[in-house]
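If your schedule permits, I should be very grateful for your opinion on a structural question. What I wish to show you is a protein chain and, alongside it, a tokenised description of its three-dimensional fold. Would you kindly read the sequence against the tokens and tell me how you understand this chain to fold? Here, with my thanks, is the record as I have it:

===
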Amino acid sequence: MGNAGSMDSQHTDLRAHTMPLKLPMPEPGELEERFVIVLNSMNLPPDKARLLRQYDNEKKWELVCDQERFQVKNPPHTYIQKLQGYLDPAVTRKKFRRRVQESTQVLRELEISLRTNYIGWVREFLNEGNKGLDILVDYLSFAQYAVTFDYESVENNVENALDKSKPWSRSIEDLHRGSNLFNTLPSRRTLKNSRLVSKKDDVHVCIMCLRAIMNYQYGFNMVMSHPHAVNEIALSLNNRNPRTKALVLELLAAVCLVRGGHEIILLAFDNFKEVCGEKQRFEKLMEHFRNEDNNIDFMVACMQFINIVVHSVEDMNFRVHLQYEFTKLGLDEYLDKLKNTESDKLQVQIQAYLDNVFDVGGLLEDAETKNAALERVEELEENISHLTEKLQDTENEAMSKIVELEKQLMQKNKDLDVIREVYKDTSTQVHTLRKMVKEKEEALQRHTHLEKKIHELEKQGSIKIQKKGDGDISILPVVGAAVVSPGTQQLLSASPGTLLEVAGVSTSASPQAPPPPPPPPPPIAAADVPPAPPPPPPPPPVAPPLPGSILPTVIYNPGLAAVKIKKPIKTKFRMPVFNWVALKPNQINGTVFNDIDDEGILEELNVDEFEEMFKTKAQGPAVDISSSRQKVIQKGSNKVTLLEPNRAKNLAITLRKAGKTSEEICKAIQTFDLKTLPVDFVECLMRFLPTENEVKILKQYERDRKPLENLTDEDRFMLQFCKVERLMQRMTIMAFIGNFTESVQIPELIVILALGNYMNSSKRGAVYGFKLQSLDLLLDTKSTDRKQTLLHYIANVIKEKYLEVALFYNELHYVEKAAAVSLDNVLLDVKELQRGMDLTKREHAMHEHNVILKEFINAHEGKLKKLQDDAKISQDAFDEVVKYFGENVKTAPPSVFFPVIVRFVKSYKQAEQDNEMRKKQEQAMMEKLLEQEAMMDQGDKKSPSHKTKRQQQELIAELRRKQVREHRQMYEGKDGAIEDIITVLKTVPFTARTAKRGSRFFCESLGNLFQQSESRA
């Protein structure tokens, strides 16, 4: 053909070809103009074009020569004239036969030219002067007219088909609406001519030509915007050639995967239904699918198209609707017959469709089964809780009895030890008394012996006993008596005290005390011997040791107490986080923070003081904490700790804050007494609910019968704490009762104020006449130089033509607050409140005597009902505003609806700023370049600076072209995207993103292929 050389040249390096005679280089101005023309015809990206502009004049001239050398020989109007000749209704039958013999070859050459020539040739073929797309679509309609007519003749008689009330081609007359080409009534000559063309491959090659045009972004947009092109492509399914029908289905399937293409394809099949007289849409397609069972390629393409047209939409309900359309046409039964097909390709496409199918009944059944199972699980968990409670009560009773018996046993052991000590002391005293009695008897014997001697001497007349008036006894020797022995003389001269001393009896006159032990015996009970005086009083007791003389008593000194109470010292590294939460009211969002105490403290403290403390990083208080910890550790070193140290320390701080005993705390929990235990303390205490490991350790310690006195206060509290029946449920109910009022207020403030105020302030909706999902796409839609977005363009147009609404965002006062609210979460909070109320009612049914639960239910059940009504009103109000903007409530909840507006307003403001800045920069650059151009005009145009001048002129022209913004088409893909999609579909079956097996093969393959095409560009 005429452009074969052009096709071959584009697959080789342009520099490898040299002309036989090198032409002389023209003037720089003419060279630059010819270079710009060549550059525009190459359809290069801006960065590649910018690189070529940097070439010197030699390289530019070489590129111009190479490009002009290999220009195509057949311009577009050559093919257009030939096609118009085939469509001339006035041509004779004989002349038409002679012309149409080469129609297929002309179309093939046209397809090759459209596919291989540079973009400038394609644009020339499609421009307003040639209108190549219109001619090609008209010829396609003419070529398949006979086929459409024959299909109608099968259902109606030929006379009705040729009725004058109908045009010769429904496709042309009904859809072209006033086309000047075929405005005549049908004739048998036209029908015969069409039958002659339909026997050839003209329809197939026409579809290939349209496919080549659609492979360019420019051509794709023209085909999509053409009122009849896609309809004629769809009507080509009536062609008798299975290969043509497969080609059509592949092309239509690829269009479905382009943004906005699915809707166009469905409209084309609606037109197909009207033209071909179908009772249901896709009826002919299913008929071809059943009848062409001997052509596997067509069946694969048909199954692939059905899979894509049904499952490539995001709306699940719409997918089910399309799926049911094919079900009514018998697709499910036919696929069941094809399940044993020998074709692997067809089996893959069938399996891909079945994987994407939505079984609504199965999903509903699964949901109902799941709900029933969850209810059964909840019921069983509640039964287990009650059984566990009973078991815990039994264990507690048995444990209490065991503890009581152990206490009695310990007391008996202590009593036994006391008795043993008493017995030991008594035995010692008995031994001492026996020794004293023995000494007393010996003294009495000596005393008796002395008395006998005295009486003997008195009888002998040697002595005389004289009694005095005071009762004293005096022994006097007798004068003239016989000489006495020295011992007797000594005895007679001794005083009675001395006598007693000799006898071994101690008196008070004795100069020396008897040595201990044994102690002196009691005085002799003799009438003539005076009793011994009482012993001296015992010395005073030793003074007790001074307090703290052995171990210092640990007390909570003021410094330690300040450190443990003062929260900022404990949480100074987290202070910015707390400060951020306190300064952001939208962070509460209907939820109650776990540490409500911290929120109240942050409201009372001075934020500036906290910031100053953080900046200076004061470490004084931290040192006091460490030293105090050392003292506490020294004090409690003799105690057994079963809990984790940090957890035990935090529990001790929490318990000291309450100022209640363990018995009082546990009793208040059992009776739901929120007067004894504030809700803040209950929430803090919920962080210390005993874990399974802690319960196991504590019970094991108790089973080992170890003394409880050895445990720390925290461990003893935890031991008693874990014995409270249904502890988790009781603590949850107490927290729910305490926070009920606060929880009720949060949805009122957020839902009523945020959503209601937004509705009142957004009554003017002129600016929001488009779908909200397109707002985010405004930033993705970029200009050719990728320096601006469609949003910049819209902002500039509004400012220039609609200045009165340019500041529309000033009317949206509460959008950011509304964007921070999740209506689903608010409604979920209301449901949680209802669940909490139900839990409280069930607990009250088990403990009807509890006054606190009864009063709470009576006081707040009405409030909860009102809150539910308010939530319903809020939801209805939101539904109304969503519908007002043309959105679906299911696909646009508040978490999606309002953030879109927030992002749009923010992006819109940024776009206004960018536009202003860009205008200033361009104005400054243009003024500077114009000034330089005026200065250079005064110089020599032949000077080397003339090249720089030309470049500056080109830059000025480019800046001016940027200011004239072109309307951006809907399609945003790259050139060659249609071919890429068709290639991927032939290798990987289409699988929807929400399919049961969750495959991502098709999407990943398509994305990788697009990335490769971009990198090649």
User: Anything to note?
Assistant: The chain has 47 helices and two strands. The chain has six domains: 18-69, 74-232, 398-478+485-502, 558-726, 727-762+823-892, 765-811+894-977. The CA atoms of residues 844 and 850 lie 7 Å apart.
